[in-house]
Amino acid sequence: MQNQELLQDGLALMALGMGVVFVFLTILVISVTLMSRLIGRFQPAPVAAEMGNKSPRPSGSATQNDETLAVLSAAVQRYRSTRRH
Amino acid sequence: MDKLITLWEGSGLYNLELGQAVMMVVGLLLLYLAIYKKFEPLLLVPIGFGGILANIPEAGLAISALDQAIEVAKPAVLQQMAAALGASLDPLSGTEAWRESLKALSHDSAAPDQVRAARDIAMNVGYGDGMLYSFYSVAIASGIAPLIIFMGVGAMTDFGPLLANPRTLFLGAAAQFGIFATLFGAVLLTSMGVMDFSLNQAAAIGIIGGADGPTSIYVSSVLAPELLGAIAVAAYAYMALVPLIQPPIMRLLTTQKERQIKMTQLRPVSKLEKVVFPLVLLVLVAMFLPDAAPLLGMFCFGNLMRECGVVERLSDTAQNALINIVTIILGLSVGSKLMADSFLSFETLGILGLGIIAFGIGTAAGVLMAKLMNLVSKMPINPLIGAAGVSAVPMAARVANKVGLEANPHNFLLMHAMGPNVAGVIGSAVAAGVMIKYLG
User: Fold this and answer.
1) Is the dihedral of CA B33, B39, B45, B46 positive or negative?
2) ipTM summary value
């Protein structure tokens, strides 16, 4: 008899639980969709606007690298020559 | 000679009980799985080590001051405690029998204020709570550690894929069927007389199917603390086994053609959407499901810290330093529940068995839901991403991606699977809230 009750409680909890999970997530889906639409209306998503300014950069940093390399090798040269004396 | 005997009688070897020895081996096994098999090492190393510490004979690291006093105190102290508990001890039956009856008394029949009085006596004569016992009461009994971990998980989670395709939330909801089906399974086993679980215990076992460590620990600490050790070990062990458990089920339920379905590219999601989302979720929780507020509130807080972009330092701490500290303490506290008298039972086997069924059913429900959605929606959905609806972030999403690549080497599902994956985290927290509301 008590087992029957436990079984019923289990079933009830299962139905209730799945129901609540689905209802809650459905509400979440609706509100997220609404939220996205609202935001999309007032603030259109900037679609990859900053694509253009990428190309000049690598060459700039390359020359800088060359410069650094020259400075470094000069420093190493001097260090080595001072050590030898 | 007398002193030598005292020394021998105080040694671990003399006092080692069979159950403790077995539990130490279990602890070593967990360490082996963590270190050599890479099973969730971040959790299983502290849990395994804590398990060994908890079972050191005579050290009493995992028991309260009262239990400790009952086990080792002098007869005079025992008599004092018996008086506090409102019982008298039979002078003829000997100290060992006294200890037994006091133990039974303090755990079952005595009123809370009597237990508190007896505890004060034990503290007064110099007994203290074991280290792991203190960890447990601070970190888990209070609920703090799983919640802080949940905050860290929130700070690590990117809701972009979910926001780009909110309908994947349904997959996260469907996968929670594993939780409730397992709950019913545990109740069914009880009614058939195979196992003996109460409804609370059945619910705590079911939550293993949520594949979410902190949620499992939180729920079982509220509903069934006596099963916490077994449930946490099962949850983390199976999370590590996700790449083995899920693919056969996924292949069984889908055709080759379905696995090859390509999904449309996700739209870019603006920063504002990501900032507003945790607030929307929080408001919904506040309105409809306050019992999920501890878990989802901390989750939303962590996520807001991540996305708002003005508290980089806090977000960084929540997802690195803080979560690491708490993981250590949480692991050791879970280990303290790996004591022989509560872990070595037939029920533990039942929990391990039911846990793996929970994972299987959750995976299957997610895949089937994805197939259903595929029938009714215009946008194609690859059913494999449904399997990612059990949380286990990001492992389940990686599994979906891998199985998808096997069917079509150019079909990358990872980003699509992240949506249901984080939806699963929300879904299992909601399920936890319902169960705590219904049973707590």
Assistant:
1) negative
2) 0.89
